[in-house]
Each structure stands twice: as structure tokens, then as C-alpha cells.
Amino acid sequence: MSWSRLPLGQRPHGRWVLAARFVVADLPEGRRLIENGEVVIEDDRIVWVGQSFQGETAARYDMGEALIGPGFVDLDALSDLDTTILAMDNQPGWKKGRVWPVDYAARAYEMLTPDELAFQKRYAFAQLLLNGITSALPIASLFYRAWGETVSEFEASAQAAEDLGLRVWLGPAYRTGGVILNEAGTMQPFLDEPRGLAGLADAADFVERIHGTAGGLISGLFAPDRVETCTETLLRKTFARAEALDIPVRLHMAQGEMELETVRRLHGMTAPEWLDGLGLLSPRLIAPHATVATDDDLDRYAARGVTVVHCPLVSARHGSALRSFSRLKAMGIRIGMGTDTAPPDMVLNLSVGMMINRVVSGSGTAGSAADFYDAATIAGADALCRPDLGRIAIGAKADIAVFDMADSRIAPRIDPVQTLLYGATGRVTRATIVDGRLAMRDGEVAGINLKAARAQAQAQFDRLVSLYPERTYLHPPVAAIFPPSYPHPEQP
């Protein structure tokens, strides 16, 4: 059977070979680049990697001038229709619906229906697969929610991940508070701890039920919302449940000035210092973004084994940066990668990360393409305690991304990893394989009609934007919240 006729969403029968001009392989002596390489797959595992396999196989698919590598591990994977991009040219955020005014906070409601919430997860998961992402820890905004995420939408998320064939770590986000604007437009924290603890209880029940389901594609995650929305009790109980279930915790921390000011106001210190004092910094913690982390905060991360999730594209869009990837790496801090924005293009994300790292470091040699590629594969898998992910190795899961190295827009080709990160984007992703199953090929994803979904996504997003005045301070019209890049012509 030819590659083009292999059914989407299925595993080839028996032992089969995937071949290409280049293969990134993880051998006993370390990561190596094999020319004219082959990867042999059986069921959900890689059983051989090298050149010219001599054993018996049921099928062989030659991808030609392509790079075969491990699928990306996205530790902060966009899982909704990204509203943050509305803020990039429209600031300050508190005037643009990104901080609730007190009159809306008193009546906050779900701006999306259950069906719309389920759809946006399915659509977002497809976008991840289009970009060679095989393992994902989803993240979504709570600004358009009544409070936190719900178990019912995450049950739909689990079904979407199974249908599309994406490996995910799932857990609904919960919180005990947030920041609101009073009548004078001043930010102030507010708390509702019982509501947050109820959210944790629901999340813990969900995590226990779904962990290890869908043939192992779905794992549990504790995902309390941003650190400034969490009380000590919520965090202590979260980490206790995570320890009992051996589940990772992801907590956004050291990511912005609003958080910095709020946590200092509430606790008199930075968030990493606060958590360290509570004894909660550990290798279990996965912490985006560290862009406002102090030197002492970074020392704490290094000493406690915390994984930092680097999201350079969304950070750069906000005018911030990790200071720096190379510095944290030299400190011994594990750095994984996250997209956290639209498009969830990990290749573009890595490219921006390399450039920002060199600017911040003041060195044209700081951080190589291989360093960033490893962060998006090996480091992400290690943060999840999954040595069978993020690698093309014997015994590893067959989670694979194939990139076109003959694309006319990226000539001349040099080293394939350098070519990918310096000269391409995720649009050169030709195929994504998860658990030995062909999930995406040439822009088509198993289990979703992307053309119809794109139209539905735009209509759903436009309706959500129309509701922004309700949750925006002083309730200006949409045209005032999000003016066009250029004024419209005056009407006669």
C-alpha cells in the first residue's frame, strides 16, 4: 500500500518501516543524525532505528527528502480559540477585557455553550497535530468563563484526544480567586476559597477516572490557574493529591507584572519564594513562564528541580523574554517548551526562542538549534517522567513528526535541524504519528473536517468577541476595545 493510501487514524498492520533522507535517532551513545535512515515500528513502539533494516516487514514507506524526528512535547499547549492575540496590539489588557470589572464579576457567566467548549478543544487539538505536536498539556483562558473549567468539557476533551489520536495530560483548571477592577479602575484581589476547593475536588475525581485511559493516550494533570488566583490551602491540597496519585502539577508563575504586584501585596514576596516557603517547589512542578523570575527565584528552581516551560513566541509578542534560555540551562534548570498562543507552531516558537535568547544573552553563539530542538522533545518528556517519549529510540513510543526538507521555500537546505529552525515553520510538517497511528498527513487530520471546522471556529470566535463589552471596564463598544489597524474610510 502506498503512503497516500494508508488510512488516517489507523496503524499499519504488522511491523513496518518509515524511511527518509534524515532521521534524528536516540542511540545508546546519545542523539545522532542518521542519513538515509529507517525507523521500524510495530504496534505503538519503535523496535529498530538505523540504516537498511534487514528483517521482515509488512510495509515500507519512504518519505524521501524529509526529516523524521520525535514528535514535539508541548507543556503549555493552546487548547482554545486564542483570545490573547487580541491584546497584542490592544493595550493595556485591563482596559481590553483581560481583567473583570467588579460589576461583571458579580454576574460572570459562561460565554460559550458546552458544545462550543467541546468544539474548540477538538479544533485546537487538530492544530497541534498539524504542527508535529504529539504530546500536549492543554491550556485555555478563563476570562470568558464563569469561574473555572468543568469536568464535562474535559470529558469531551478526552474523547476528542482519543478520536484525533493526540497524547494529552488533562485536568480542568480551578482557582480560589483572581484580580478584579473596582469602580475606580483599581486592581484588587478577590477570593472565594470554597469555590476553588470544590473545583479541586472535581478535578481530582476526573484525574483519577481518566488517567491511563484510551490505551494510555490520556493521563491526568493538576492545573490550578495562575499562582495569584490560588490560596495556600488550595496549593497545599493540590500538591498532596498530586503526590498521592503521582501526577504532575502545572502552575503559571513568575510570568507578569500583575502577578508580581498581586503576590507581593498578598504575601510580601515573589511567587517562587512563597511556594518554596510552603515546601511546594519540586520536580513535580511544571512552571510556565519565568519571565519575571528574580535571580533568587531561579536559584530556587534549580535547587528544587522545577521545570520551566519556555513560551518565547507569546512572551515576545507581549514584549517580555526569558533571561535567558542559555543562562537557565547553565544553571541546571530543565527547560521544556510551550506554544501558549495561536498558531501553536512549535517550529516557529523554537525559531523565535533562539533569536530572543541570543539578543538577551548578547551573544551570537548562545543556544543552538539542537539545544532548542532537545528542549521541545527530550526535556518535555523528562518533565513528565516519560523516557519513552520525545525520542526516536528502540522501545520508545512511536510518536513521530515528519518534516519536508524539499519544500521550495526553504532552499538551500543545510543541516536538517538547523534548516527546520532557521528556515521553516510548522507548515512543512508532512505527517504526525502518535502511538504508531497516523494522526495527520499533508494537512489532513483524522477525525475532523478542517475546512468546515475553520469556518465554525471563526464564527464562534466572532460571537465571543461581540460579548467583550460586558466584561470590559466601563463597557465600551467592540470597535473601541479592538480598533482596526487602519481606520475605515469615512462614510458619505
Overall description:
The protein is an alpha/beta fold and 492 residues long. The protein has a domain at 71-385: TIM Barrel (Alpha-Beta Barrel), CATH 3.20.20.140. The chain has helices spanning 102-105, 114-130, 151-164, 193-210, 232-245, 257-267, 271-277, 295-304, 312-317, 325-330, 346-361, 369-383, 416-423, 450-466, 478-481; strands at 15-27, 30-42, 45-50, 59-62, 66-70, 72-78, 100-101, 133-139, 167-170, 177-181, 187-191, 218-220, 249-250, 285-288, 307-310, 334-337, 400-404, 429-434, 437-441, 444-445. The strands form four sheets. Strands 1, 2, 3, 4, 5, 17, 18, 19 and 20 form a nine-stranded mixed β-sheet that branches. The chain has a four-stranded parallel β-sheet with strand order 6-8-9-12. It has a four-stranded parallel β-sheet with strand order 13-14-15-16. Helix 8 (295-304) links the parallel strand 14 and strand 15 (307-310). Helix 2 (114-130) crosses helix 14 (450-466), helix 3 (151-164) packs parallel to helix 4 (193-210) and helix 4 (193-210) packs parallel to helix 5. The longest helix has 18 residues, at 193-210. The protein is globular.
